[in-house]
Automatic annotation (TrEMBL):
Main location: membrane
Annotated membrane topology: Multi-pass membrane protein
Bilayer-spanning residue ranges: 51-68, 75-96, 172-192, 204-221
Identification of the protein by name: Heme O synthase
Amino acid sequence: QFFEVPFDSNMNRTKNRPLVRGQISPLLALCFAASCGVPGIALLTLGVNPLTGALGAFNIFLYTCCYTPMKRMSIANTWVGAVVGAIPPVMGWTAATGSLDAGALLLGGILYSWQFPHFNALSWGLREEYSRGGYCMMSVTHPGLCRRVALRHCLALIGLSTLAPVLDLTTWTFPIISLPINLYISYLGFRFYRDADRSSSRKLFFCSLWHLPMLLLVMFTCKKSFLEKEDKGDVLGGSRGRAMEIRLP
């Protein structure tokens, strides 16, 4: 917001932000950001693990130094912004496990894909405002691409949900139970792609608000327990040990 005061003042949805209205000074805003960011990264690094702290620092850098200026330069900002939104659940995984493995990447992938129908549908109704503010959004400069990308990532959520049991993160009930809500958001994504009006974009946007928490709740309910994986590993280890005993003289 510190960098975007002149542009936010041209948009109805941002013209009442405290910096735009002069309710707080730019110096105070920077001090507040630093007082949150620096201790936050330190707490994650020292109190959780260095990997999670590094991801937090990288996300702040990515948002402020890459995504924010790119919003006025290229529609690629949406893809960068999706990475920014995908990193927090990855941080949750690394905080719990200390590793950046398949589970972290799958959670990040779900959040990454979800953001395209969510934001593209939202930006469709704000095209005039984004254009007035000078922001390079797909909905303004590439409306056809905006709709195609939203539909593409709605369908990607079905594939990502199917990957969860393949990676041994959930049971096979997860892709089955989540299929109706994934098909529904895909249907609304198709309607948005076909009709390209405010009604279809609003329906897709509001669906995205409940779709994500419900999808993650189902994923949590169907997750494989750590003890189950450990027991499976012990059984496999025992089988290997017996095989070795047979081979030994």
